[in-house]
Amino acid sequence: MRKIYAYISSMKMGLYILIIIGVTSAMGSTFFPDTFFQSYIFQAGLLLLLLNMSLCTIRQAKTFWQTVSLGKEKGGVKRIGVIILHAGIVLILIGGTVNSLIGQKADISMTNGEVINLSDVLSDNDPLKIKLNEFYIEFNPDGSPCQYFSKVSLIKELGDSQEFTISVNNPLAYNGVKVYQQTFGYLLKVQTESDSRAVTKKTLREGDVLQFEGSDKSLKFVRYIPNYDPRYGMISRTTRPDNPKVIYAIYQNNSLIKAGIGSIADKIEIDTVSFVTLSGIEYYTGLGLKQDPGLPIAAAGGILLMVGSCCPLLMRRKSK
Questions:
Q1: Which residue among 5, 20, 125, 182 has its CA within the 20 to 30 Å range from the CA of 232?
Q2: Low-confidence spans in the chain with pLDDT less than 50
Q3: For helices 295-319 and 73-102, what crossing angle results, to 10°?
Q4: Rounded to 5 degrees, what are φ and ψ at 72?
Q5: Closest by alpha carbon to 295, among 180, 181, 176?
Q6: Nearest to residue 147, comparing CAs of 169, 131, 171, 172?
Q7: Where are the domains of the chain?
Q8: Cα–Cα distance measured from residue 202 to residue 95, given in angstroms and rounded to the nearest whole number
Q9: Which residue, among 210, 184, 190, has the nearest Cα to 111 in the 3D structure?
């Protein structure tokens, strides 16, 4: 048992575990980037490394106590930094393991006025709703984006609400949940009409296909270009909507029969009885939700790690 304990708590064992974690993480993050760090393989590696570092720290503390007991204070003091450093690593591993086991993350997309119940997205979350009041982009003078903003309201169970503004590098933090500004996209508003049916309003995302009942034709919203220039093709000159255009395609029995570029308010003829009007463009925002319960533990471990790393330097200066 002593030999097993000595091997499990050894630095050599820790290095082997680190190598295994490094190799599997490199492969897992390449082939399964969204799920690997919540997988049993990664969690098992963290738990093994946590066990190794915990036992190693206990050994260091035991050696320190024996050194002090024997009156070799100088040798014992030198081990203080090592013990603090090991304790920091252990706390970082505990925090990472907690995040891997019970941490959560999710991505949501919202349009202006939309309300989402966070308990439907993150399990075991307090009854809390998020409402997007407005998403907008600030532009530089040259038309390039300066910052992206999502103005939201957090609505509590009793109807009370708080307003927040989320932007890139400025997430919303509330009750252990962080909400990040991740991305945005465009929604195309259209109106369809035909001889036999009244006007119908629909909203399409890029790539969506609009089917027509009783017809073998369909329309696909290919891309929205905020600042169209024929010299740039399907790439917008700037994000600012200086010359907005919509690229669309018309299919018949899944075969492309026409592609075109339209402006807002253009009326597109699908066939002799069906028409589509490009009514307008609306933004939607993409928000990332994260719940990291182990983050405070890992942060405390990081502080101890820095303190433990500095101790030998301070003791060396003192000895001089």
A1: 182
A2: none
A3: 160
A4: -90, 75
A5: 176
A6: 169
A7: 2-103+293-319, 105-183, 186-285
A8: 46
A9: 184
Three-state SS sequence of the chain: CHHHHHHHCCHHHHHHHHHHHHHHHHHHHHHCCCCHHHCHHHHHHHHHHHHHHHHHHHHHHHHHHHHHHCCCHHHHHHHHHHHHHHHHHHHHHHHHHHHHHHCEEEEEEEECCCEEEHHHCCCCCCCEEEEEEEEEEEECCCCCEEEEEEEEEEEECCCCEEEEEEECCECEEECCEEEEEEEEEEEEEEEEEECCCCCEEEEEECCCEEECCCCCEEEEEEEEECECCHHHCCCCCCCCCCECEEEEEEEECCEEEEEEEECCCCEEECCCCEEEEEEEEEEEEEEEEEECCCHHHHHHHHHHHHHHHHHHHHHHHHHC
Residue in this structure with the two tokens 């093709």, named with its chain if needed: 233
What are 275's strand-pairing partners?
193, 269
What the block records as the tokens of 124 is 């075991």
Q: What was the pLDDT predicted at 77?
A: 55
The model's pLDDT over 78-129, given as tens digits with 9 standing for 90+, comes to 677 778 888 888 999 899 888 888 888 899 999 999 999 988 888 766 778 9
Would the pTM of this model clear 0.85, i.e. be above it? no
Whose CA is closest to 291, among 99, 136, 111, 132?
A: 99
Q: Is 74 left (phi over 0), alpha (psi -120 to 50) or beta?
A: alpha
Q: Return the sign of the alpha-carbon dihedral for residues 57, 60, 62, 65.
A: negative
Specify whether the CB–CB gap between 52 and 44 falls below 8 A.
no
Q: At what angle do helices 73-102 and 40-69 cross, to 10 degrees?
A: 160
